[in-house]
Every structure is written in structure tokens, then in C-alpha cells.
């Protein structure tokens, strides 16, 4: 028996704008969070909010030196203290665990800060700290808790990440984002080669009188160096938006080497960057050997204007629905970015995400988005399990099949079977079986190279 799907979609007027389309369909159920790297800073869970960023370097012995910075907005305590004279008190507990759960590092500190003290010269009212560790484990789990037990305030970060193994090849450390750099006069945890670099763990920058540049610190390892033979290296950086469009770039073509390893600050002007999320890619080339290496990290520029004010509802349930709307068509990196952003960043991400996929930007309608939401709506209404079903996922990713074969029972198995056929690099098929007889079909085999394959599916069903 052969049937084709007859699509009867809700009609979406062509004149609907992008933002209305995003708000219009909030029908999608949630999907659970997964772990992701420090592609962006990590926001704490709990009723006390802080942000954590991690940077990995290599020391002269070839060991991994990991730095962790965190920022805590003290305004969260302002309405809780009995008097502005009383200091703000909180406890910081940090644990680093190896893969077996054994403790590598442990710190417990009591902080007491006067509300009128100069916590940070560039970010009044924000407490920023930085810790350094030498780590040898392959993968560690970071536990960080900041709490005020008297007021029942607590924020937590639990995060696994891989410790980088630096070899003798040319390499770059992680990019360290700083909001301010000044000469060092006293000992400070923020000191880097005689300069005080105030980290910005949130990686959000606002252009203003006090903040006109972003300062990027990084280290270059294993340049080919001989004091008797002068040679140079080059540094190039590019800044791109979420669509991959290059916004700006800068090249330092010939920097004289003074050692095998070196440390650098790059100054990036903020005045030319509008509100949005950006990818900074830093590239180094050894001009003597031709070897090159690169690293990249995201940062955000914030500017409160009428065009970027919040117009999307951003409750936890809404965010889960927005994520489900993109999860089958977004890249893994895009999904990691979305999960990491705050509410304001998620709104900007969604606008960029859909506009970058508009097949005809000259028209009022985003044709790609309209078709995608039609598939979401159809899957939610048609299939048992909605968009979270195997059938829903395949339909959303690949569109409607060119042909369907339905078998309600055969001499081999007594369960309903549907085979969907596509013209994808030849004839591609997806075989679904209703294992439980409740209309919930699961994918048991496909000859698509990126899909689950089990040519013996029929024997398994027996």
C-alpha cells in the first residue's frame, strides 16, 4: 500500500514579520540540557546569580595552568542588608574533582565587603575574583558555590571540562577578556607581566566613557626562536557576527620574536561594534616555519536601544520552546551558544538565527522560517510524540517524503511498518515500526549515512 502525505497546514500570512513568527508558535515541549564547553561564560543556578569563565595556559614546565574568574553583582544583596553600613558577607566554596571524584583543589573563603568600598575600579558594585591552578587530570569537574546562609541565598555552578594537553607544537592559550588594564604597583591576583588586567567573566562590554576598548590577553607557545637568527611572527584577528559575516579584522604582519614563548595584549575598539554577539578568532603564524594556529571565543556587546529591547517573553518554559523550535536545524555549536546565553542574548541569537536563513531577504516573508514552522506544526498535530518523535524529527529535517509504503502486518512481523522514501543522493529510505501498537513509530533502520542503520531490523522485530 502506497500513500503520500497530504499537508494541510495552518495558513501563515506572508506579511508576518520575523519577530511575530517567533512569538506566534509556542507549542513545542521541552528538551533537557546537555553539557557544553566554555564557549561562553557559565551562569550559575540558584537564587544568587554569578558568572564563571575559565582560561587555560601552559607554564614553562609544560604543565597546564588553569585560571578561573567569576563575577558577582553585589546589587543582589542591597535590599537584604539591615543597613548600608553593614558589610556584605558571603561564602565561596570551590572544588575541582578528577574523573574518579577525588578532590584536586579545594578552597573555602569568607568574604566581607563594605557596600561603599571600591570593589572594582571599572565595575562599581561588582565583585570579581580570579583563582589559578596547576592541573594534570584529563577531565575535571568544577564545583563553585557562592552563598549567604543567613539570607538563604545560594548560587551554584557544576561543570565538566577537558584539560588541554599542550605539546611542543605552536599553540595559543585561551583568550582572556579584560575590561581594563593598568600598570601594576602592588601585588594582585590580576597581575599579568607587570600589568593589572581586570577580567570580565561575563564577556559583555558596553561602549562608554570608561570602557572604549576590549583588552585580550593570550600567550603564544613554541615559536621557532634563535637569538642569532632574527625572525618574526604575525598576529591576525577577525570578528564575525552569528551569521558568520566578518565585521572587522586587524593584522600585525611582522612582530620580532624575543623568545620561544611570549604573551600579548590586543586592544579591540568597541566604537565600531553594534549590539550583538560576536566571535573573535585569533590567528598566529610563525613566519620562519610557516606554522600557524588559532583559537576563538564569543563575546557580547550590549547597547540599550529601542531595536534590541526585550519583546520576546523569556520565561524558562518559553526558552525551552524556542530551543525545541531550532534543535533539528541548528548546528551543535549554535545549540551550545543558545543554551549558554542569558535572556537578552537569546533574543538577539533568535533574530540572527532566523534572518541568516532567510532565502529571500528582499521579501517581507522569511520563506525558510515559514516552511520550518509548518513542519513543526504538522509534526506536533500528526505524530504520536509530536516533534520529539522519530517521524517528527525526520520530517522536520528532511521535509515530506516523495513516497510512503504502509504495511499493517506481514508474514514476518505483526506490527505496523511505514517506509518513507526520499530522493537524497539516490533513493534514501527511513523505516519506522509501531512496536507497541499505540501509534508511536520508532526509526529502526535507514540507509542514510548520518542516520541509525540496522539492515537486520526485521529479524530484531521477530
Radius of gyration: 27 Å
The main sheet comes to:
6 strands, antiparallel
What's the oligomerization state? single chain
Helix content: 10-25%
First-to-last CA distance: 22 Å
Would you identify the regions where 5 or more consecutive residues have pLDDT less than 50? 1-36, 118-123
Give the overall pLDDT as a whole number.
84
Number of helices: 7
For the secondary structure, the number of strands is 25
Strand content: 35-45%
Kindly name the structural category: alpha+beta
Q: Name the overall outline.
A: globular
Can you walk me through this structure?
Strands 11, 12, 13, 14, 16 and 19 form a six-stranded antiparallel sheet that branches. The protein has a five-stranded antiparallel sheet with strand order 1-22-23-24-25, covered by helices on one side. It has a five-stranded antiparallel sheet with strand order 3-10-9-6-7, with no helix packed on it. The relative contact order is 0.13. Helix 5 runs antiparallel to helix 6. A hairpin with a 2-residue loop joins strand 13 and strand 14. The N terminus is likely disordered. The protein is built from seven helices and 25 strands. With 462 residues, it is α+β, with helices and mostly antiparallel strands. Among the domains are: 181 residues, no CATH class; 119 residues, Immunoglobulins (Immunoglobulin-like, Sandwich), CATH 2.60.40.10.
Helices and strands in order:
Blueprint: E1 2-3, H1 18-24, E2 42-43, E3 45-46, E4 50-58, E5 64-73, E6 88-97, E7 103-113, E8 126-135, E9 139-148, E10 153-162, E11 171-172, E12 176-183, E13 191-192, E14 195-199, E15 204-205, E16 213-221, E17 232-241, E18 246-256, E19 262-269, E20 276-286, E21 292-301, H2 316-326, H3 332-340, H4 343-356, H5 367-382, H6 390-398, E22 403-407, E23 417-423, E24 427-434, E25 441-446, H7 457-461
Parallel strand pairs: 15-21
Antiparallel strand pairs: 1-22, 2-4, 3-10, 4-5, 5-8, 6-7, 6-9, 9-10, 11-16, 12-14, 12-16, 13-14, 16-19, 17-18, 17-20, 20-21, 22-23, 23-24, 24-25
Helix pairs in contact: 5-6
